Amino acid sequence: MATLLSVNVGMPKDVSWQGRTVHTGAWKAPVQGSRMVRRLNVDGDGQGDLAGHGGEIRAVLVYQLQSYRYWQRQLGRDDLTFGIFGENFTVDGLPDDEVCIGDRYRIGEAEFEVTQPRVTCYRVGMRLGEPTMASLLVAHHRPGFYLRVITEGRVQAGDEITLTRKGPEGLSVAEIDALLYLPGRDPRSCAER
User: Fold this and answer.
1) 100 and 114 in contact (C-beta within 8 Å)?
2) Are 7 and 88 within 8 A, CB to CB?
3) Can you point out the beta strands (E) in 18-72?
4) Inter-CA distances, 176 with 51, 52, 146, 163, Å
5) What's the CA gap between 109 and 155, in Å, rounded?
6) DSSP label at 42?
7) What tens digit of pLDDT does each residue of 156-189 get?
8) pTM reported for the whole predicted model
9) CA 111 to CA 188: how far, in whole Å?
10) How large is the C-alpha radius of gyration of the chain?
């Protein structure tokens, strides 16, 4: 059974990075109690770069506990707190290589649909202090994914995540991410499955 472990929010702020100022909403932290999830985001959350993040098809970013554990080992770090990957929902379960585009899930009062892998950008590297993190997420097939909100409602840590419908094409988040960002990928390999 998949579970929502943490709901994380943060408002955009200016951050110094490599000699310039970047407006970003990547600094997210866990909140207590329930939060309303609306068509465009979680109450109390915002995005700094609306061209690459946010909007109806990227309303909520999800990242998995299993990927946290993986990165703790890979990076040799024990300071990875929920929300540090810029995600709104930290979950136990829902791995990128099993979750498919178009899958729908009920969490608390709300229903969501998986729309695409995370749009990898340098801001996740800023947040982690690891400049190559965006490319590492892709190379290690652990991008996380976005949800659109089908039914608005309240969610909170501890809510069970229930699959309500499988995506029609059966293409996983990891497969789509590889097609978008890794060199030499053949789209026919996914179509031939």
Assistant:
1) yes
2) yes
3) 20-24, 29-30, 35-37, 60-64
4) 20, 17, 12, 20
5) 6
6) B
7) 999 999 999 999 989 999 999 988 878 765 555 5
8) 0.92
9) 31
10) 16
